[in-house]
Write the structure tokens for this entry.
Amino acid sequence: MKRFNHINIYKAIFICCFGVLFANCEGEDGEIGPAGQDAINGIDGADGINGTDGTDGLGFDELTQFGSITLTLKGTRPDDVAFTDSNVFRFTPLSPEILPQSNSVILEESFLQFDFGRFLSAPGGEEFQSVGTTFSLQVTNPESDNPEFTESRFTIFQYPVISNDLTILDITTFVGSDNDIENFSITNFNFNNETNVLTFSFTLDVPANRNTTGNELSVSGEVDVIVLRELQRT
């Protein structure tokens, strides 16, 4: 009877020890295995087909066929902030009533008379575009090495200068060589009387009382235009 009790006690102890050992083994995580290799990137898809270029707006070629005037303005705004602004005026009105007045040359024996203007955007209907620049220029002895420029007129009207501080300044000026233009200079003058191509560079200063900035305005630019020969009655 005692032996049986001893055996039962040993069995009970063995079962308890085994249970504790099993519980300890089950509660501990194993070591983290090494990371797997990254998957191979997929193949890029083929580029789509480029779209078809759009066409120029209706009448664009006709309105820009006579060349352009490039202007650079340097001055001081009414609030005493300096500015520099450049733009290309390329559009020409095509109205029969307006075109000769804004894009013509009259040939005389001793001089040429040019009257031309270009606009910042396409004119609407048969009226001038409100933003533009014009020249009136008489040239004596144009084929000589030292042509003389007389009776000059230059205008800028309603040209908006937009600054980085989101302000806008509307510049308008009208000056003439007789008493308003200062430091007026024309260089690289050339007129081809076969193609009617007129090119030259120019600089001038506009007095403070002749422009809407209220300060002296320096203007420079490049003219590269085709003018129409205006026939005169004999």
